Amino acid sequence: MVYILENSYVQFLSHYNTCIRKMEVSPFRSSSLAIVVALVVLLLLPGSSSANLSKNFYSEKCPNVFKAVESVVKSAVAKEPRIGASILRLFFHDCFVDGCDGSLLLDDTPSFQGEKTAAANNNSVRGFEVIDDIKSKVEKLCPGVVSCADILAIASRDSVVLLGGPFWRVELGRRDSRTANFTAANTGVIPPPTSNLSNLITTFRAQGLSARDMVALSGAHTIGKARCTTFRGRIYNESNIDRTFALARQRKCPRTSGTGDNNLANLDFRTPKHFDNNYYNNLLIRRGLLHSDQVLFNGGSTDSLVRTYSQNNKAFDSDFVSAMIKMGNNKPLTGSQGEIRRNCRRMN
Ligand code: HEM
Ligand SMILES: *[C@@H]1O[C@H](CO)[C@@H](O)[C@H](O)[C@H]1NC(C)=O
Ligand SMILES: *[C@@H]1O[C@H](CO)[C@@H](O)[C@H](O)[C@H]1NC(C)=O
Ligand SMILES: *[C@@H]1O[C@H](CO)[C@@H](O)[C@H](O)[C@H]1NC(C)=O
Ligand SMILES: *[C@@H]1O[C@H](CO)[C@@H](O)[C@H](O)[C@H]1NC(C)=O
Ligand SMILES: *[C@@H]1O[C@H](CO)[C@@H](O)[C@H](O)[C@H]1NC(C)=O
Fold first, then answer.
1. Site to substitute for ligand 2 among 53, 171, 331, 334, most atoms within 8 A of C-beta
2. Greatest pairwise CA separation for the chain in angstroms
3. How far is residue 14's CA from residue 91's CA, in Å, rounded to a whole number?
4. 146 in Cβ contact with 62 (< 8 Å)
5. C-alpha of residue 229 to centroid of ligand 1, in Å
6. CB-side exposure of 188: number of CA atoms within 13 Å?
7. Of 142, 153, 136, 135, which Cα lies nearest the Cα of 59?
8. Distance, CA 89 to ligand 1 centroid (Å)?
């Protein structure tokens, strides 16, 4: 389904570009200089945010990559909807540590400790087997062509679409790192759930993402689950939480640290398997699960944006897509940097 959309969207886009071109050029017919300026602007605009990645990167090298990725993600999500959430989170945690370079996917080696056991990831990140399945399918189709970092980007998009969220064309051309850095992953670049609003704004700013991007990307918590240990402090100790909600969560998350730490709760209590804007509706009634969720609507600078997204699913979809593309452009390896891993768990 996604790859069909991909093709029809290409057609839509080329139609759209033709319209734009007509719109831009015809008013200036009298001046050839204006036409040249308009064409230069048109040529530069699409690349201005992301000089090194492109939507057509695999159109010649591996045109069926989308179909292959989607079919694996589709059966994994059909088996367990949460896996779509887990894959999306992998992309976030990869992109925030030394850029979107597939470093999170590397297992530990004698020469380095990988990122999988860093604080934000240990006993928490999941979905690596799905990435392995996609990789082996894509390697059979186009050996040595598609990076693990790009697979993560495409699989994240497919996960969002399969769970009912927006479609977008993924920017591609990333290459894979030949190393991972436990220390970099472990020292706060990925914000903890205890973050206050200024911590969140600062950690996203450090990755070139605005407060608006941060609020839109947090909407990813419309799907998936969190462990008791990540929200215990909030449900027992905080006052900006709906009482009924707190009591319900306490039933499966004991107060004492070390007991029931891994018990799970849905991040979105209403529609946890559906990618929608209910995350924001929950914040309005003080039913954000994580401390870092509720700080987005707690009398601070992001309240109005949370209200907007709660009332306008299209505004959320559109900002989420822009922010995903922006996050996906975070310091990719390109050209001859890095490599195309044959197995996402180890360097070649
Ligand atoms: C704003 C700062 C963020 C914080 C503090 C944060 C924190 C967390 C925490 C603590 C969990 C639960 C992990 C566990 O208990 O094992 C979680 C889950 C999740 N996060 Fe975030 N997150 C943030 C932003 C994001 C972003 C930007 C995305 C993706 C675009 C994302 C996607 C997810 C998803 C989908 C899950 C559920 C994963 C699953 O069920 O396996 N989060 N997050
Ligand atoms: C593109 O990649 C090259 C290295 O391959 C790098 O020097 C350059 O800064 C990158 N440009 C952007 C806009 O990321
Ligand atoms: C990761 O979690 C395991 C199991 O809980 C623990 O034994 C290990 O020490 C943790 N690793 C790190 C690096 O914290
Ligand atoms: C790993 O990350 C840390 C913290 O960002 C940095 O100081 C260190 O130089 C990095 N190590 C390597 C080998 O890149
Ligand atoms: C947010 O947390 C940091 C520590 O992580 C603290 O220094 C700062 O004062 C806090 N900001 C607010 C507004 O509470
Ligand atoms: C609640 O706060 C108190 C006082 O700061 C602290 O001692 C306790 O550990 C906290 N409880 C939880 C479950 O976080």
1. 334
2. 76
3. 29
4. yes
5. 13
6. 7
7. 142
8. 6
pLDDT at 320 over 90: yes
Question: Phi and psi for 158 in degrees, rounded to 5?
Answer: -60, -40
Is the Cβ atom of 259 under 6 angstroms away from ligand 6?
no
Domain range summary for the chain, segments of one domain joined by +: 2-44, 65-186, 197-328
Q: Is residue 180's pLDDT more than 60?
A: yes
Tell which CATH classification among 3.50.50.60, 1.20.58.1560, 1.10.520.10, 3.30.450.40 matches the domain 65-186. 1.10.520.10
Phi, psi of 343 (to 5 degrees): -130, 125
Element (H, E) at 24: helix 2-25
* Most informative mutation of 187, 189, 194, 199 for ligand 5 (most atoms within 8 A of CB): 199
Per-position DSSP letters for 55-98, written without gaps between them:
TTTTTTT-TTHHHHHHHHHHHHHHH-THHHHHHHHHHHHHHTTT
**Cβ 31 under 6 angstroms from ligand 6:** no
| Residue given tokens 């407060």 in the structure block | 211
Q: How far, in Å, is the centroid of ligand 6 from the Cα of 236? A: 8
The region of weakest confidence among 43-47, 57-61, 101-105, 217-221 is 43-47
Sorting pLDDT into bands at 50, 70 and 90, what band is 230? Answer: very high
319 labeled binding residue: no
The class that CATH gives domain 197-328 is mainly alpha
